[in-house]
Amino acid sequence: MIHIQSLKFSYRQNRPLFEDLNLHLEAGHIYGLLGKNGAGKSTLLKQIAGLLFPDGGTCKVLNYTSAQRQPALLREVFLVPEEFFLPKVSIHTYVKSYAPFYPRFDEQAFYSYLKEFAIPQDQQLTNMSYGQKKKVIISFALATNTKVLIMDEPTNGLDIPSKSQFRKVIAAAVTDDKCIVISTHQVRDLDNLIDSIVIIDDHKIIFNQSVGSVTDKLSFKLLTQLDDRLPVLYADSNLRGHAVVMKNVNMEQSRIDMELLFNAILSNRQSIQELFN
Ligand SMILES: Nc1ncnc2c1ncn2[C@@H]1O[C@H](COP(=O)(O)OP(=O)(O)OP(=O)(O)O)[C@@H](O)[C@H]1O
């Protein structure tokens, strides 16, 4: 659904952000895009949405070159940006103005998402709090029914109950013909939601695996003592003990800890990548 090949991009001369970046994302999945500050997550999402153009290589979405911004593609892609502007209009006027760009927009679903998020429907958008505005955009994004839905830090600014509502509505929205990509630093907000993990670092994608394949190859444990005989790839030690990522030699089932996985890959990239090759 999204095929990025040998992507090169820089904002400034001689300061490449992406070099030979490759990424293939399929329909029917919810991808979590993780990376350090400044790794290029927002930039990559904007390349997919056709808001930034490659310096080299290709970025194809639904077989369209995203930089060409063809209407047939733009009506199938929705990006919820990290920072956004909403006009000084009512929710109703906003929907009447922007929904026509999306042929499968479901107005009934939009108002039911707002209800789920407890958003008052008769306010001017500019009079809402940041979190309320974010919920309006997320509701709108889901109601567009685009095949590609991209969200940049969607849970920033959401209160605690809204985060679980967010997980609920996104999980219900994914269908076999949709691809959802969510970037975040709040990995716990994506717990039980994403089914694949993509990590960007050092100008390229260094990891792209399903949660199932991660838990097949790796096990996540809390140990009271570290033991040299164990196939530990990364350990995070604190007062409670040692949270470790190990080779899953005994085919044990464990629950993925995305924060631990992320730190493990950044600090022991080669050994972990070899396990998945
Ligand atoms: N419009 C711009 N002009 C110049 N440089 C930019 C611009 N936007 C981003 N950058 C730079 O590109 C790099 C990647 O930025 P980007 O926002 O894509 O990273 P990110 O992974 O989303 O970061 P964060 O996790 O902090 O949101 C950063 O070094 C940033 O300073």
From TrEMBL:
Q: Which InterPro entries match?
A: AAA+_ATPase, ABC_transporter-like_ATP-bd, ABC_Transporter_VariousFunc, P-loop_NTPase
Q: Which UniProt keywords are given for this protein, alphabetically ordered?
A: ATP-binding, Nucleotide-binding, Transport
Could you tell me which SUPFAM superfamilies the record lists for this protein? P-loop containing nucleoside triphosphate hydrolases (SSF52540)
GO molecular function terms attached to this record: ATP binding; ATP hydrolysis activity
- Source domain of life: Bacteria
Task: Give residue ranges for domain ABC transporter.
Answer: 2-227
The keyword Transmembrane is assigned to this record: no
Name under which the protein is recorded: ABC transporter ATP-binding protein
Q: Which PANTHER family match?
A: ABC TRANSPORTER ATP-BINDING PROTEIN ALBC-RELATED
